[in-house]
Design goal:
Helix 1 runs parallel beside helix 3. Strand 5, helix 4 and strand 6 form a beta-alpha-beta unit. The longest helix has 13 residues. By secondary structure, the chain is of the alpha+beta class. The chain has a single domain, classed as 2-Layer Sandwich (60s Ribosomal Protein L30, Chain: A). The protein binds magnesium ion.
Amino acid sequence: MFRIGTGFDVHAFKPGNKVNLCGVEIPFNRSLAGHSDADVALHALTDAILGALALGDIGLHFPDTDSRWKDSNSEIFLTWSIKEAKKRNYEISNIDLTIICEKPKINSHRERLILNLSRICSLDKNRINVKATTTERLGFTGREEGIASMCSILLNEIS
Ligand code: MG
């Protein structure tokens, strides 16, 4: 038995000196705005898991009106969603995550992002793909106003 899910998220840039992606700090000349640490990649991944489990979305469980999640590490949301999967006897089969932006350039950080997802999810790195793309300078990511991320996930029943 398998369950499939997708997630999508966007965060806008604000003044700052780093962005958090997949739980990794990447030095940059701006940061991402958000109630939590604005880790757009972890939010898309968490939403993909919640989607696969038919558990709504991240905002339902961790509302941005709740001061408990102010500036919180998005790893909390991801590990919670993985626990919810385990409770239902599901584990992650594989993750395919895309980060969409002109800058920062992701490719030189890709291996670190994969290794950190591997650590958080307790998942072999050959089951995790992180891709980066631009929108050819079109739209809000093309104008360098923020970063988008999308994620597909497959969960399989634990045998
Ligand atoms: Mg978000």
